[in-house]
## 1
Amino acid sequence: MSRVFNFSAGPAALPEEVLEQARDEMLDWHGAGMSVMEMSHRGKEFISIAEAAEADLRELLGVTDNYKVLFLQGGATSQFSMVPQNLLADKQSADYVYTGQWSKKAIAEAKKFCRVNIAASSEDRNFTYIPRFGTWRRDPASAYVHITSNETIGGVEYHWVPDVGDVPLVADMSSHLLSRPVDVSRYGLIYAGAQKNIGPAGLTIVIIKEDLIGTAAAEIATMADYKTHAESGSMYNTPPTYAIYVAGLVLQWLKRLGGLAAMEKTNIAKSQLLYEYLDSTQFYDCPVSPEDRSRMNVPFRIKEDSLDAQFLAEAKNHGLVQLKGHRSVGGMRASIYNAMPIEGVRTLVEFMREFERNHG
Ligand SMILES: *Cc1c(COP(=O)(O)O)cnc(C)c1O
């Protein structure tokens, strides 16, 4: 068996220890005589798995009792419509910050439910930065402010939290939740699809302040109402049991590593290694403003873009895969989530140096 360094943006690499544990527990979970996949979601074994996952997530992120943690399905994409359906209450508008492809999708969906005020946009420089807070133009009548705190495609990340006062701040953290400590109390609602940095596809995590639950219009679909899931402990219908189990193993792995502060240190070291090299050479470049660069998703280009296909082919021969940039931006992108070891980034940088020597 040989494993590659997988730089996929998602579904993405998982910690090897977690995969090994899932393998070891596959046929017989803790003496249950069956796989977690085969268990009733209402049985005591699975309930204990789900409760431990929630407790570990709360511990890692410091989530207080006035927030609910929901384990949902439908991906972050379903949250694009659930957020306005639930949070508008009696208001007719919401503020969105437009920083790239994912906020674009969130905005398009919200427009089906309300008036969207684009409070700030980085479209003028092709989404290569986060608009400074002082330039935001908010609508005082907005029900909430929505940000995409890490744009997975463009590789821009908020390294600060906007202070929006009493208006709920909603953040799509799909591609960096658990990569660093978060002050959850600054947010009304945080959501994330698990398949980037948390676990397998199929699980969507929502962390929501309790006073934002139960404000949806009466005609909302049952499954779209946060209240349904909050009141049933995310067990209104069958939850994504195996994905919750594997995410739970990832949470235990994070705790063994020392939690999110320790994880953040490693993520800073990993991303610096790559950005410092990109900034030191004329052969490649990274289009993102240095202060807004993502620690998770690093887009870069070879200045001579006719070399892209050869770069990707040679990288693959070195066991470095999934480096092709998103089809909308081209070039390359290295996603270096929690599960990417620093050796993977070192190997990538060494390969990039060698490629530069051969083709520069
Ligand atoms: C991947 C991603 C999404 C979409 O997630 P799905 O789970 O596929 O719906 C939304 N927002 C961000 C920031 C993402 O990275």
## 2
Amino acid sequence: MANGIRPQPGIMDIALYVGGASQLAGQSNVLKLSSNENPLGASPAAMQAFARAAHDLHRYPSTDHAALRVAIGDVWGVDPARVICGVGSGEILKLLAEAYAGPGDEVVFTEHGFSMYPIYAHACGATPVVVPERDRMVDVDAILAACTDKTRLVYLANPANPTGTMIPEAEVARLAAGLPPQALLALDGAYAEFVADYDAGRALVEARDNVIMSRTFSKIYGLGGLRIGWAYGPQAVIDVLNRLRGPFNLSAAALAAAEAAMRDTAHTDRCRIENARWRDWLAAGLAELGVPSDPSSANFILARFASPAEAQACDVYLQSQGIIVRQVAGYGLPHCLRITVGDESACRRVVHAVAQFKGSR
Ligand SMILES: *Cc1c(COP(=O)(O)O)cnc(C)c1O
């Protein structure tokens, strides 16, 4: 360009995020299993709250999200004063990088980590540092070994996406305790609600001053279309993030729906139980066909094929049957396909199609 207009360092290093496809040319009965969406949908109470919000569209929303933060506090036993709500948990994870890292700083995540983490690192001009995993499991010692006096932020999803694997809470605690003093641990709990009796790091946030946990309404709560997430962290960090976020970042309709969804714990419980049931059925069915997967703690499984070519061929076959799953070569897993756990009929359709694919070879 002839002029001197240039973006900030790092921005042109960002590879655009590619979302899960939702359409197939020439297919009508498409089954979308590429974005880890809840097959049971949102809580009916959330839908009603959203519809009611239509009567007040001329009003600006709350700036402090107080009602939603209180609901989160009631359900998850956290202090609402230390909760921040964002446009998806993604906004909060991005604000963390903006607030705490910049050129010359390092942002650490693991080799199969969520593909938004490098985007957040580049966006603030920091250097992404990618740490190896061990057989698709996060390796705390490797993360600690990668930390330097430049490390400002460590992103860790537990359960992880796209592997679905999880490390024990004691390992997360060991990671938090071993970080250098200037580094913050961002525990991404996007799939935490799928794990029974799991606090997703709440106790760790309370015990330490270098851990923040993020959560989302996009997965078990079935509100991905509305864009709402939240995080619980040290008061000092929450105060910093609140200065950066837009005062009206969440719409009134989103706030109302999220509050109702949060309080409908019966729906959440039903979704967790159904997910576990059909996830285990799906994994067992595929394993019988010679397509194994690691035990998943989330609402998807990472199906492993004999080769990248077989994974691709299976993806093509599934598409011919109207089924969309996620290729994860970009995550360093070219021989795998990530398959969202759908409802019973969806899982049966997947196993049937993979059986036909395997039988045809
Ligand atoms: C889906 C997902 C999120 C959620 O993002 P939102 O912005 O809340 O929709 C965060 N982290 C991981 C690892 C995810 O898979």
